[in-house]
Amino acid sequence: MASDASSMLEAALEQMDDIIAGSKAVVPVGVASHALVPLPSEDCCPSARVLQLAEELKGALDGQEDKDSLRRQVPSTTAHTLLLWLDKSLVNLRALGNNESYQERLSRLEGDKESLVLQVSVLTDQVEAQGEKIRDLESSLEELQHKLNSTEEMLQQELLSRTSLESQKLDLMDEVSYLKLKLVGMEERQNHNVERQHKAEGLLQELRLLKNKVDELEDEKSQYERKLKATKAEISSLQQLLQCKNAEIENLQAQLLSKAPVSVDSAERECMPVYVHVYLCHCVLLKAVLAHAKVSMFRIRRTQSGGLQGDDLEPTEFRRGGFRATAGPRLARTPDSGRSVRDMSMPFSKWTTEQVCGWLEDYGLGQYVNLARQWVVSGQTLLSATPQEFEKEMGIKHPLHRKKLQLALRSFSNKAMEKSSELDHIWVTRWLDDIGLPQYKDQFHESRVDGRMLQYLTVNDLLFLKVTSQLHHLSIKCAIHVLHANKFNPHCLRRRPGDENKTSPSEVVQWSNHRVMEWLRSVDLAEYAPNLRGSGVHGGLIILEPRFNSETLAMLLNIPPQKTLLRRHLATNFNALVGPQAQQEKREYANASGHTPLTTTAKVRPKKLGFTNFSHLRKRRPDDSADYICPVDVAISPVLNGNPHRPQGSFRGLSPIVDRDTDRLDQIGPKS
């Protein structure tokens, strides 16, 4: 390939030599382009050929990679010729540049000017085009900027609207929560109203029944009064007849005495049978009439709707609180009830069988009257009887019925009237409602638990009554303690709300379960108040039990532990309710060693006794106070007497846990 290029170069050089000899000089055309243009010549074809060859040489050289080796292969003569030719061409160009005419230079400059004008026009068009593009871009930029500004404004408006919507959402959520609380309150109020309506309907129905019964009793009373009047008239006529007969007898006796003494004996022998017969007949008839009159009067008094007093026989009087035979053991006994039938001044041991049976029926043990009528001779029969004889002769298999009878007989033996004996078993069922334990009403009613039995109630009795919760044991214990402190006043518990800002421990200790729920509503905890139904929480438990604190109350109210603010609110109001001294007492007991918190799941289980303890059980007296839920001789706290300032530890003397050993709660079941 190098040889071909060399041969081509030599041929081109030879042709160029021939052309140079007859060609004219070339002049530069255009300063801006710097291109060499051949001058017009007659023989232009060889010049074109030389130029073509030069271009081909240039192209061949540009395509060569090893130019140095190629240059070394060029013959020296050829290279010298080319150099001379090129130098000569440059000399001719310089000469031509120096010797050109003004006309040629002017034409050249005009050509340059035209080319420059053309370039300026082209550049001007380009500048205008670029300016239009710039203006278009600026207008589009302005549009985009306007769109950006409008978008930012819309974004700000959206942010503002979103903020307002969020605030409205929060307001709506608050309103919804308020409405929910209000709805709960309305539902509770509605339920309360429904309950009150049901109670009112029941009371109205019972009132109608009582009115009907009163009308019937009034009719019976009027009938018995008519019979009584007829009987009294008959008695008066018989008495007059008896007086007449007595007068006749006296006349006969006077006539007999006025006769001769000889005939006295024979006359007496003749008249004596007649006299004796007439006298005996009249006596028997008079006794029968008097007995019938007594029975009629007894029935009239028993059917009266008032008490059993002998002087209370007005037909239109209806006294509240009295005893009615048709009600049986359902109504409370009054202190004077039964005196017209049973003389209370008479010792119980001298009571007749009918009096004892009537007393059993009034006392709520009417189911044992039939067997008692067959076994009891007088009141002394019951006083000297043993529990085994009660079970065998009267069929009293219920242990609490035997205890009820034994306590009543013991009061007759001691001749001491206790205030607790005035509270019957119906009052005890209402009392269970007041202390928040209505679930045990059936067991207490079936066992005929009255006020005296509450006073002598034991742990065994509560276990027999199916009260196994430790919290419920403590609730009953504190409630009995409040009864002791108020001398078994049936109206000592406070059920209606008062001034919440002026409460003292002496008032709180008498609060019922419903009153505690009202207090929860007053401290903005109305939605949790229904959880206290059936919990046994009352004022006595809150004040007297040192283990009962705000945490125990929160647990009974089912307030979740994560609601710390709500529990703190409850604790603040609880501490303000019980007072600083009771709060200090509860805190000290909670910080004491061996303290176990009060829970709702703790149970009182019977303690398993060994064989060595049975002899102790046999020797234990029935009235041993160590077995009682609340001893009779328990000390009365100053707080129950209305003294808000009490010494440190005064609650401990009242505490159902501290005053006596807690292990005594784990006893055997009820005694048989």
Give your account of this protein's structure:
The chain starts with a helix and ends in an 18-residue tail after the last helix. It folds into three domains: 2-100; 105-302; 483-665, Transcription Factor, Ets-1 (DNA polymerase, domain 1), CATH 1.10.150. It has 672 residues and is mainly alpha-helical. The protein is rod-shaped, with a radius of gyration of 65 Å. The chain has 24 helices and two strands. A two-stranded antiparallel ribbon has the order 1-2. Residues 99-161, 200-255 form a coiled coil. This is SAM domain-containing protein. Belongs to the liprin family. Liprin-beta subfamily. It holds the Pfam family CC_Liprin_beta. One of its GO terms (cellular component) is cytosol.
Question: Which secondary-structure class do the elements indicate?
Answer: mainly alpha
Strand content: under 5%
Strand order of the largest sheet: 1-2
User: How many strand units?
Assistant: 2
Over the alpha carbons, how many angstroms does the gyration radius reach?
Answer: 65 Å
Give the proportion of residues in helices.
Answer: 55-70%
Helical stretch count?
24
> Gap between N and C termini, in Å?
139 Å
Anisotropy-based shape? rod-shaped
The tally of structural domains comes to 3
Helix and strand element order: HEEHHHHHHHHHHHHHHHHHHHHHHH
| Average residue-wise pLDDT | 76
Largest sheet: 2 strands, antiparallel
Low-confidence stretches: 23-44, 262-281, 298-341, 611-626, 635-672
Family: Belongs to the liprin family. Liprin-beta subfamily.
Organism: Pygocentrus nattereri (Red-bellied piranha)
Function: May regulate the disassembly of focal adhesions. Did not bind receptor-like tyrosine phosphatases type 2A.
Domain SAM: 351-415, 428-486, 511-542
